[in-house]
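Review form for a predicted model. The reviewer records the input and the model, then writes brief findings.
Reviewer: anonymous (R2)
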Amino acid sequence: MVIRCETGESVSVKADALAGADLRDLNLHRAMLDGADLRGADLRRSDLRSAGLERAALDRADLRGARLPACNASSASFEGADLREAMMRSGIFDDANFTDADLGGADIGRACLRRARLAGANLRCTGIDEADLSGSIADTRTVWPDGFDAHARGVSIVDEST
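Model under review:
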């Protein structure tokens, strides 16, 4: 399988499908993955700078230490994904689903997470004070950095039992 990048590069992967594929440590700079099914894929330490991930399915994907700065992941789903220590600075994650995702230690400075679904997510990450979380929805299971005021940042907190 071949992943095409806007840089003109192509990345060959040894898989028939991207879902569940081993994509560790790959240079996927400006990869064109809009709408791709990457559920359960191993993307640890991969470079996804400026990648197109709009509407991509990354549920349960392992993105530990991945680089996602300036990517466009609008309306993408990261449900249950492991994003610990990921670099997400200045990325666009508007309308994305981070339900039950782990962003512990990730850098989300200046990232846009407008209208994102954050229920049950671990958001003990860096740069959260610089991120745009307006219109996002979290629940009482969502974990925030100590002293972080989600309401003041435009996040609605709902009771997960309703």
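Findings: The mean pLDDT is 97.
Further findings: The beta strands are 2-4, 10-12, 137-139, 156-158.
Recommendation: see findings above.
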